[in-house]
Write a structure and sequence with these properties.
This protein has a single domain, classed as 2-Layer Sandwich (Alpha-Beta Plaits), CATH 3.30.70. The chain contains four helices and four strands. The structure holds iron/sulfur cluster (2 copies). One iron/sulfur cluster binds next to helix 3.
């Protein structure tokens, strides 16, 4: 199963990773400082952000675009660091949507 292979791959690289069902139980509070924003026009659909997200909160939609679940994204920036075309920008998160 592809999810298990992803976790095994990250384990071998020494990157801590949660299984999707574990990640869903750890919702991000108002403490997230930075929020990853994906520029779909720059994205080349390589899925590296999906692969490397240690919280397992990125899914790929039917068009091949990555989607971030902000309820559980921790704002670590691993996705942005690993994007080969710099399509992910880390922006200061003021939690406007929660006010
Ligand atoms: S900031 Fe971290 S937790 Fe959020 S989507 Fe990127 S890699 Fe995953
Ligand atoms: S790593 Fe960057 S280019 Fe690759 S799928 Fe994610 S956002 Fe798109």
């Amino acid at each position: 199963m592809i999810e298990d292979e992803k976790i095994k791959y990250l384990d071998e690289k020494g990157i801590p990773a949660l299984k999707a069902e574990e990640a869903k139980t750890e919702k991000t509070g108002k403490w997230r400082v930075f929020k990853p924003i994906i520029n779909e026009e720059k994205c080349i659909k390589c899925k590296l952000c999906w692969l490397y997200c240690p919280e397992n909160v990125i899914t790929i939609d039917k068009n091949g675009h990555p989607k971030i679940n902000y309820e559980i994204c921790k704002g670590c920036g691993v996705c942005a660091d690993n994007c080969p075309v710099k399509a992910i920008n880390m922006k200061r998160d003021f939690h406007e949507e929660e006010k």
